[in-house]
Request: fold
Amino acid sequence: MMGTFLEEITVDDFETNQEKVYIFDTTLRDAEQTPGAALGIQEKLEIAKHLAKLNVDVIEAGFPISSPGDFDAVQRIANEVEGPEICALSRVVEKDITAAWKAIQDAPRARIHTFVGTSTIHMERITRTTPERTLEMAVDAVAYAKSLCADHPDATVEFSPMDAGRTELAYLYEVVEATIAAGANVVNIPETVGWTVPAEFGGLIAGIKENVPNIDDAVISVHCHNDLGLAVANSLIAIEQGARQVECTINGLGERAGNTSLEEVVMAIRTRRDYFKAYYTDINTKEIVPISRRVSRTMGIPVQPNKAIVGENAFAHSSGIHQDGIIKSRVTFEIIDPKEIGWQTSQIILSPRSGRNALKHRLSELGYELDSEQLEKVYERFLRVADKKKAVHDADLEAIMSDEIRTVPATFELDYIQVVSGTKISPTTTVGIRTEEGIVENASTGDGPVDAAFKAINQIVKIKLNLIDYQIRSVTEGEDAIGEVTLKVQDNGHIITGHGASTDIIEASAKAYIHAVNKLIQLRSEG
Reply:
């Protein structure tokens, strides 16, 4: 199945006894720890409601003991958000666990998540406890949490041995076994500092499966950080080795380099269902892009353009070869249908690397149908504009079309323009104009470079126009925007309008003036 095209994959290719991978979202807890990402209560509630719409299985709503505001936010989410299990985090401290339970006890489905560091580094330098004492604290915490929710029919307890990736394996197995025996329904294996590589982390999960006798009494969860850029890879290999819950965040936000990206894990399983054929999630993928934008906007943290799945460039194509392939068949260069995750469509980004086919395709979408000669002319102009800009937008194309494709015969055509100007010299503009006899050059001075350009043109075309109106507008935004000049000239009672567009406003002015000259010549010939 490795080489199977997406459109050839059918339901028959997948196993009927698939196992669900539960999606535990910690955007409101771990992602909120991103510097500058603090949220208000109402903001948390709105994100939680959207997470429910996304259909995540668990929402870790916060750390209730950390502040009155966080307690209130968790409590409101527990009371007002329907669907997902609502989870509250706590240390292995009785008052933490009590606060967590008070915040979530009214949720239809509630979960207490308690944790303690089990690596030698954490025990020696943070909790300053012995392995024996740490184990005792973990077991007591799980037992206490279990007792609080004993009368709640749909409440669960989750335990995390923090920094599991650097925890001595025999000790880790002992802690996991003891906390399951104490009542943990879920044991989460946190790769807290992103230390392990996939082969190691996969081996860690496999080792737990092999060496913890009661492991089948709990769900194995993983919580990976992205310090080495391996959070998603570690999470995926953990699934293959027996994990059935992945803790993740929208946009991969979180402490330091962030957490496992929800959208990447979900779409890896869904897109490569020929490989991950034994697994599925219940995520509503059409909400991935909308919630990504909501979280980015609410937290004030932009999504990097090249971010997988949700970045602005994830479905953008600027190479001519790629654009041609996408136009002919989307799957040539896209493994995901953008509409499947909430994008409207793929983007053809017109740039200096774009080919004629991509330009013709976009112009056709804008309503322009060109013959080969017209397309070649517009393409040459497009390349000149594209060389000056990072990308050519629809408004640029409209300006190019109005400037290049006209019914007026081009008796004269601007070939080049040069300007010398300064505060202590007279502006001088040199123009080269293509005529029937070839290119004619002339230079002139004026009150400004535009005036000098008009005078230089007059001397070549031998027609002096009476300028009565001159307007400039920016067609697109930014420093490299195309400017469009519209001017009106008068000749024997006739008012003639000329248009010109360019990233250089003096060039646009010269083009508009020559356009008016050509229209006047046509008018005189018809008269």
Remarks:
- The first helix runs from residue 41 to 54.
- The radius of gyration is 33 Å.
- The chain is about 40% helix and 20% strand.
